[in-house]
Here is the input.
Amino acid sequence: MTPFAWDEPRTLKDAVACLDPEDSSVRPIAGGTALMLMMKTGVFAPSRLVSLARIEPQYSQIRVDASGALKIGAMASLSALEQSADVAKHFPVITRTLLTLSNVRVRNVARVGGALAHGDPHMDLPPLLAALGAKALVVGRDGSREVAVQNLYLGYYETVLAKDELIAEITVPPLTGARAAYMKCTSRSADDWPALGLAVRWDVGPASAIRNPCVIVSAATEKVTRLPETEKVLDGSNGDETTARRAGDAAVAEVAFLSDAHGSGAYKKELLRVYLARAIRQARGAVAP
Here is the structure.
């Protein structure tokens, strides 16, 4: 690795001030699990890294507020999210997802904000949080703004974040009886990068009908992608096998599949058909708090 400068600001405001809106070689570092790999392989050579390790402890907290919304500080580790009793009680789909998200060593170091800001479509948390309707509080020199997680991504490793903006907190709205599931297919070990990541969420209407569905796909695509035509097929149905097959047809018709080391586009196309049906079955059987 080439030499670089290192800053350790003590506040989020100071961390933002250390960033350079015109210089992409100045980068924030949270857990660094992905960034360090990029540096070791020569993909990225920073001139300066701004460590977020010493900013205010409030940005590492995880809590459920009075409304039932989940508040996740961007510097909370994936292990802390996995082990949170509040998350397990109110958002069990998040806890289940984290069990096979990479491995324990990575989860102990990686941070939630970094997992969202990195922009890698193979990450597990972005599609799940997008399906759950989560929003990220983004802080920059000119103030703060809220960005829906599903709108964070522009393309492969591309996000809407400016070079001098940081994710401070993520808010996940209460499930309030909604059904949700996340499923992935890995081509090697269970904790490998997925060839397909798929998240679904819907409200439950009369006679257990699916209302306001949200279907998010990743890994098979260049970014976290919502599937509105697939959602139209599911909306108002009971999620039976016939509907699941129709939804699978709609899904493969509206996705631009990405071939990579984890699978060809044709392979991922068939994965989407199979795993969408499985995710629908899993969500139908999952009773949310």
Observations:
- The domain at 57-172 is CATH 3.30.465.10 (Uridine Diphospho-n-acetylenolpyruvylglucosamine Reductase; domain 3).
- The mean pLDDT is 94.
- The first helix runs from residue 12 to 18.
- The CA atoms of residues 7 and 50 lie 5 Å apart.
